[in-house]
Design goal:
Layout: H1 36-42, H2 46-49, E1 83-92, E2 96-106, H3 110-125, E3 130-133, E4 136-137, E5 142-143, E6 146-157, E7 160-171, E8 177-188, E9 191-202, H4 211-226
Antiparallel strand pairs: 1-2, 2-9, 3-6, 4-5, 6-7, 7-8, 8-9
Helix pairs in contact: 1-4
Length: 227
């Protein structure tokens, strides 16, 4: 069932480079590796995003990532070998909902991180470009029929390299609504960042006009914190 928000609002606080003095800057990692504590501090919190955002009522499974392909596909497990640092938030109201799931996989070295990213890219490469899903009604879920398109884009942000899977879901005309999702998978040094933003709209058959800029702003805010 789609949640409801009064009005989609995304107010990400972007960090300005060069604001702190040299004495306040943390010492660089001598090995060039990124620590789990660094990623924990880089992930956005509800106060960074907007006043209507809050942690979800049920915490996500730390062993599983968000769905990459959408449709009825199974969400992939977390690639093994890394420490998981995660933060998830939702913004729900009367006209839809927004969700943000951030997962940093901190490995022991860059090779392990590249292998983790490659495993997720293999999942993305297996996504169908177009899917049609009939209406689903169960004890846990009620969702109208919909079609969903999937596009993969190369992504580079502040020295982090990877890809983004962009999905657009459109519900059947008698239940107008859309769901736009971006799942960014980026790697730098020994870390894989999986950042997923989605916006769901009820009674609106058009893509959110701010979707493209909002998901990139969210990803950019995290990686700029790490450097």
């Amino acid at each position: 069932m789609l949640a409801r928000i009064a009005a989609p609002a995304l107010c990400v606080v972007l960090l300005a480079a060069g604001c702190s003095s040299g004495d306040d800057d943390p010492a660089p990692e001598p090995t060039g590796l990124i620590a789990a504590t660094t990623m924990r501090g880089a992930l956005l919190q509800a106060t960074d995003i907007g006043p209507t955002w809050a942690p979800p009522a049920t915490a996500p499974d730390p062993k599983q990532l968000v769905s990459i392909c959408g449709g009825t596909s199974t969400a992939p497990p977390v690639p093994p070998g890394g420490e998981v640092v995660a933060a998830s938030f939702v913004d729900e109201g009367e006209k839809g909902a927004q969700t943000l799931d951030q997962t940093a996989l901190v490995y022991g070295d860059a090779s392990a991180a590249k292998a983790g990213q490659a495993a997720l890219r293999a999942v993305a490469d297996g996504c169908k470009a177009d899917v049609s899903v009939p209406a689903t009604v169960t004890n846990d879920k009620s969702e109208p029929a919909y079609t969903e398109t999937v596009e993969i884009k190369t992504l580079n942000e502040s020295g982090w390299d990877g890809f983004a899977v962009i999905r657009h879901k459109k519900y059947e005309p008698k239940h107008p609504g859309t769901a736009d999702t971006a799942v960014a998978v980026l790697t730098k040094s020994n870390v894989v960042l999986v950042d997923a933003y989605a916006i769901y709209q009820l009674n609106n058959a058009s893509t959110s006009p701010n979707f493209g800029g909002d998901w990139q702003k969210l990803v950019g805010s995290v990686v700029q914190r790490v450097g």
